[in-house]
Amino acid sequence: MAWIFLVIAGIFEVVWATFMKLSEGFSHPIYSVLTVLGMIASFAFLAKATHQLPLSIAYPVWTGIGAVGTVIIGVILFGDKLSPLTWVFVGVLFVGIIGIKLTAN
């Protein structure tokens, strides 16, 4: 169950980052509130995950999910342009997340 909580925490990491962009510097109240709620949810699920997972495993996976997910959202929703080399490194990050999961006890 801890891994499920960790994935949910990572998804909320992407959610709050997306709403933060949409808030345009916290100038849109609805998106600003959704940013804060996403942060709270992300931290809450991370805290639940760390009850059973070591912090040294949970934290890098959480931030990795957030990073890879936010890159994908940036490209799809906001039209961010990434070089092919940047995509290679995003892939390396993704492989790192999977590697941490597979090698964690």
TrEMBL record:
<keyword id="KW-1003">Cell membrane</keyword>
<dbReference type="Pfam" id="PF00893">
    <property type="entry name" value="Multi_Drug_Res"/>
</dbReference>
<feature type="transmembrane region" description="Helical">
    <location>
        <begin position="27"/>
        <end position="47"/>
    </location>
</feature>
<dbReference type="GO" id="GO:0005886">
    <property type="term" value="C:plasma membrane"/>
</dbReference>
<dbReference type="InterPro" id="IPR000390">
    <property type="entry name" value="Small_drug/metabolite_transptr"/>
</dbReference>
<dbReference type="GO" id="GO:0022857">
    <property type="term" value="F:transmembrane transporter activity"/>
</dbReference>
<dbReference type="InterPro" id="IPR037185">
    <property type="entry name" value="EmrE-like"/>
</dbReference>
<dbReference type="InterPro" id="IPR045324">
    <property type="entry name" value="Small_multidrug_res"/>
</dbReference>
<keyword id="KW-0472">Membrane</keyword>
<protein>
    <submittedName>
        <fullName>Supressor protein SugE</fullName>
    </submittedName>
</protein>
<comment type="similarity">
    <text>Belongs to the drug/metabolite transporter (DMT) superfamily. Small multidrug resistance (SMR) (TC 2.A.7.1) family.</text>
</comment>
<keyword id="KW-0813">Transport</keyword>
<keyword id="KW-1133">Transmembrane helix</keyword>
<feature type="transmembrane region" description="Helical">
    <location>
        <begin position="59"/>
        <end position="79"/>
    </location>
</feature>
<keyword id="KW-0812">Transmembrane</keyword>
<feature type="transmembrane region" description="Helical">
    <location>
        <begin position="85"/>
        <end position="104"/>
    </location>
</feature>
